[in-house]
Structure formats: C-alpha cells, structure tokens
Amino acid sequence: MLGLYGGLDHGITPGDIAAMRKALADAGKTDCRIDVFADAQHGFFADYRASYNAADAEIAWHRCLSWLNEHGAA
C-alpha cells in the first residue's frame, strides 16, 4: 500500500495517519509506505482543482512510479 496525503487535508487527520501506520506495523506490513506532504491540501494531485500543488504532485508522482516499480506492479 502506498498512501500520499496532504498535510492540510481536513478529512484525513494526523491522528488518522498515525492510526494507519500503527495498524500496518501491527499487521507486519513492512512493504507499505505513507507519505504526508505538509503544505498540500486534499486533492493536491488534481490539476483541475484549486488545491493543486504542482511541486508536491510531481514528487508524489515520482514516488508512486518508484513504489510500483519496486513492487513489480509497473
């Protein structure tokens, strides 16, 4: 699992992310990754939204491709 979240997203709180990380660790899921982009809002990857953050979206895209390649999904 790869999670790419905006740190300014009000729908997914830091507590939610901490709980996800703990649940993954407790389940022994060491191949999962959750990244939080501190200055990004919900939908930061959607270039048709006001919340689009080009710099973070580019970083997130490269991390996504890298993760997929590492896990044989690309």
Quickly list its features.
single chain, 74 residues, alpha+beta, two-stranded parallel sheet, 2 strands, 14% strand
Can you tell me about this structure?
This protein has helices at residues 14-26, 54-70, and strands spanning 2-6, 33-37. It is flat and about 35 Å long. The longest helix has 17 residues, at 54-70. Strands 1-2 form a two-stranded parallel sheet. It has 74 residues and is α+β, with helices and mostly antiparallel strands. The chain has one domain (2-70).
Element pattern in H and E:
EHEH
The total of beta strands comes to 2
Describe the biggest sheet? 2 strands, parallel
- Please state how the strands of the largest beta sheet are arranged side by side: 1-2
Class based on secondary structure composition and strand pairing? alpha+beta
Distance between the termini: 14 Å
Morphology: flat
Strand content: 5-15%
Mean pLDDT: 95
- Gyration radius, in Å: 13 Å
Percent helix: 40-55%
Give the number of domains: 1
| Low-confidence regions | none
- Put simply, the count of helices is 2
Summarize this entry quickly:
The protein has helices at 14-26, 54-70, and strands spanning 2-6, 33-37. By secondary structure, the chain is an alpha+beta fold.
